[in-house]
């Protein structure tokens, strides 16, 4: 069981790292990471991503760096 948790954690970290280096959205039906020039552009990309799963994006974190913004969103069910 401990081995499974460690593998899951490594996969999760890898997804965030790839998302941080990518210029396109990366994630799954639960969350998405976007590297964008502006918060508005990141929200648009996250909205498009989450819509594939019938969900809406909810901002969970944002970091400004030299190339723009790294934004993380949770994809939440529509209410």
In short:
The chain is an alpha+beta fold. Helix content is 42%, strand content 37%. The model is unreliable at 9-15 and 17-22 (pLDDT under 50).
Account of the protein in words:
This protein has one domain (2-77). The chain is α+β, with helices and mostly antiparallel strands and 79 residues long. It contains 2 helices and 4 strands; from the N terminus they run αββαββ.
Features:
79 residues; alpha+beta
Q: Uncertain runs with pLDDT below 50, 5 residues or more?
A: 9-15, 17-22
Helix content: 40-55%
Q: Based on CA inertia axes, which overall geometry fits?
A: globular
Distance between the termini: 35 Å
Structural class: alpha+beta
H and E string:
HEEHEE
How many structural domains?
Answer: 1
Strand order of the largest sheet: 1-2-4-3
Quick one: biggest sheet? 4 strands, antiparallel
Computed Rg:
13 Å
Please give the number of β-strands: 4
Number of helices: 2
Mean pLDDT: 81
Strand content: 35-45%
Topology overview:
Layout: H1 2-21, E1 26-27, E2 31-36, H2 39-51, E3 55-65, E4 68-77
Antiparallel strand pairs: 1-2, 2-4, 3-4
């Amino acid at each position: 069981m401990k081995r499974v948790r460690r593998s899951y954690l490594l996969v999760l970290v890898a997804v965030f790292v790839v998302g941080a280096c990518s210029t396109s959205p990366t994630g799954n039906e639960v969350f998405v990471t976007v590297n964008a020039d502006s918060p508005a552009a990141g929200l648009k990309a996250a909205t498009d991503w989450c819509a594939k799963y019938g969900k809406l994006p909810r901002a969970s974190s944002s970091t400004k760096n030299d190339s723009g913004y790294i934004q993380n969103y949770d994809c939440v069910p529509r209410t």
